[in-house]
């Protein structure tokens, strides 16, 4: 009974196609044939099974495409989350660097503006950047900085 309903619906679908396949055309012809031979009936049965399999394959392909699209959307969402997280981490590092400038008294904590002339401050930072890592002044600067950070974190 269920098979008859499926076949009726499927035949109506096939009749609505602009360009049914050769196999589908043969199925339509045999389904409409009033006097079928035993050979016709066997062929019709085989064509019905093939059409049912083709429909299942079509549904499976559509489901696979739907799942792939969902996976792509999930990948896009995950990528956006990762970009946002990386942006937050970069922002946090900038805030940390600004806090160091405030602790050193180079930036006003209220206005967030440099205490010194911008060019003067940048020049001093460029000078610091050019001091070699093995220079003894850097060890002294590190000790003083670690001490101030230790005080502020207490």
TrEMBL record:
Coiled coil: 47-74
Keyword Coiled coil: yes
Pfam (any one): TraD
Alphabetic keyword roster: Coiled coil
InterPro entries: Conjugal_tfr_TraD_a-type
Protein name according to UniProt: Conjugal transfer protein TraD
Species for this entry: Nitrosospira multiformis
Lineage of the organism: Bacteria, Pseudomonadati, Pseudomonadota, Betaproteobacteria, Nitrosomonadales
